[in-house]
Amino acid sequence: MLAIVCPGQGSQSPGFLSPWLELPGVHEQLAALGEAAGIDLLAHGTTSDAETIKDTAVAQPLIVAAGLIAARALLGEDATAAMAGRPIVVAGHSVGEITAAALTGTLSEPEAMAFVRERANRMAEAAAATPTGMAAVVGGDPEEVLAAIAAAGLTPANMNSKGQTVAAGTLEQIAALAAAPPAKARVIPLQVAGAFHTHHMAPAVSALEALAPSLTPHAPKVSLLSNHDGAVVLSGAAALESLIAQVSRPVRWDLCMETMSAMGVTGLIELTPAGTLAGLAKRGMPGVATVAVKTPDDLAAAQDLLAAHSASKEGTL
After folding, report:
1. Which of 44, 197, 200, 309 is labelled catalytic?
2. Contact by Cβ (8 Å): 145, 137
3. Which of 38, 54, 159, 222 is the most buried (most CB within 10 A)?
């Protein structure tokens, strides 16, 4: 069983799409995705500086587009058809769940870009209302970490693994946690512009609920996991509901990895901008082979891993 995973916000870096534009068709694909999102993704993926692409309204469409580009380069023109019927499960972390929805045929690419445009703009507005942010808490006893997060008035917004929880809230609350970290733990501020996956994002949820009737979600053609509980999503309606609700509720990537392990996943490919989820898999899913597709140079290794998992259908639920 192979997992194809899509990263979330904070994984982008200046110019990270430049090498991809050397591949045939990528310039046109990125331009089309940018048109659907209403922003210049060509510029933001190549020449925009770190501060510009940190902006939620830019970062989220950029990350979804990057994943779709890498998936087409890896799987071909129709990534969904290439995965259907094969022992593959797809999941995305936070905004990466939108990428995953597009790859599994749950949303069309234009719908995914329209959704992420609304999500990004409304989350940026919500973030601007109150200075908020996020910080990773690495190490420490899990119960003590959660207690310290609660004591600081923060929310455990991303439960990524037993050794990494992301806290979110006001900047003052994050500063208080950093000043008194849990025993044997480090508090690392993240390069994001708001307290995502908390009650601070409630206005964005309402906006996405208003957008929902304009979308036509389909049942995933490839196994798709929900950020909410790590369970396989069985219908298009449930997938869309999950995408909307996760804006203000915690991302349970730890449960997604548990499901992958239960399904018998032995290989994992992380799409661009890659590294974070592959790193979590190395620690949380021992023995699983991983490939982080950071540039086109990584495609050959990803294709080898894909080929190695194409013959067997064991591990499906």
Report:
1. 197
2. yes
3. 222
What integer pLDDT is reported at residue 193 of this predicted model?
76
Q: Which domains does the chain have, with CATH numbers?
A: 2-127+198-308 (3.40.366.10), 128-189 (3.30.70.250)
pLDDT of residue 311: 60
Which of 35, 21, 57, 206 lies closest to 109, judged by CA? Answer: 35
The mean of the pLDDT values for the chain is 94
Of 180, 132, 127, the C-alpha closest to 152 is 180
Specify the pTM: 0.93
d(CA 191, CA 154): 17
Residue with tokens 């894909």: 306
Q: Is the dihedral of CA 263, 75, 93, 165 positive or negative?
A: positive
**Residue that is written with structure tokens 């708001």 in the block:** 194
Q: Give the residue carrying structure tokens 């449930």.
A: 238
Residue of 11, 44, 93, 94 marked catalytic:
94
Q: Specify the higher pLDDT residue, 179 or 192.
A: 179
Based on its alpha-carbon atoms, the radius of gyration of the chain, rounded to whole angstroms, reads 18
Q: What is the mean pLDDT of residues 37-43?
A: 96
214 among known catalytic residues: no
